[in-house]
Design a protein that fits this description.
- The chain has helices spanning about 15-25, 35-45, 85-90, 100-110, 125-135, 155-170, 190, 200-209, and strands at about 1-5, 30-35, 75-80, 115, 140.
- The chain has about 210 residues and is an alpha/beta fold.
- It has a single domain (about 1-185), classed as 3-Layer(aba) Sandwich (Rossmann fold).
- Strands 2-1-3-4-5 form a five-stranded parallel sheet, sandwiched between helices.
- Strand 4, helix 5 and strand 5 form a beta-alpha-beta unit.
- Helix 1 (about 15-25) packs across helix 6 and helix 3 (about 85-90) packs across helix 5 (about 125-135).
Length: about 210
């Protein structure tokens, strides 16, 4: 399948690099749309390896590129990392560069469109724009890694988010190909202990005095 990978000026380009790497490993075609600020962050964060995993990287000013049309055979798109400004422009349908246009095409063609914000905390404008985009059919996957499978490296931590991205794109069927899925465990002993009552805590404090 063919996928579009958008990269903006938000920090955390390792998420894009790992996404592109796994897409290629799974045999998919990757078209990268990298904004000028995105290219700056790629260089600053030492993630030039990203371009080793893409098949093409059209200029984001080129509206004649294949991915600008809904007739082009793309299975979906992810913008990772996605700046809040980009989310706002996608939600507003501005199509002021090829990345925003390609995202707009995915929405109108009812193809998966995923945005991965890394911003924190969110203000009301951010939340409103993410809500608008979700109502329009987009999927917001924050760059919030999980820890329950005890990742040992930055790459393993990042891949917990990448697995979510690929599953929602339809690029792979089983997240276990990248991360260990949660299988459930027995309740830890500490979690079974009763929470101390307010009266008990008051007694403990009184003794300390």
């Amino acid at each position: 399948m063919r996928f579009i990978l958008g990269v903006t000026g938000a920090s955390g380009v390792i998420y894009a690099t790992r996404t592109a790497m796994h897409l290629k490993r799974l045999g998919h075609h990757v078209t990268a749309l990298v904004t000028p600020p995105g290219r700056g962050v790629v260089a600053y964060e030492g993630q030039d390896e990203l371009f080793d995993y893409v098949d093409e990287a059209p200029d984001v000013k080129n509206f004649f590129a294949e991915c600008a049309s809904g007739s082009a055979d793309y299975a979906g798109m992810v913008v990772v990392p996605c700046s809040m400004g980009t989310i706002g422009r996608i939600a507003g349908g501005t199509s002021d560069n090829l990345l925003i246009r390609a995202a707009d095409v995915c929405l109108k063609e009812r193809r998966p469109l995923i945005v991965v914000p890394r911003e924190t905390p969110y203000n009301l404008i951010h939340l409103d724009n993410m809500t608008r985009l979700t109502r329009q059919g987009g999927i917001v996957i924050p760059a919030s890694p999980h820890f329950y499978d005890h990742p040992k490296t930055i790459e393993e931590l990042v891949d917990t988010v990448v697995a979510k991205i690929l599953m929602h794109l339809g690029a792979m069927r089983d997240a276990a190909d990248i991360v260990k899925p949660w299988k459930g465990i027995s309740i830890p002993k500490a979690a079974k202990q009763k929470t101390p009552s307010v009266k008990h805590l008051a007694k403990v404090r009184a003794k300390k005095k």
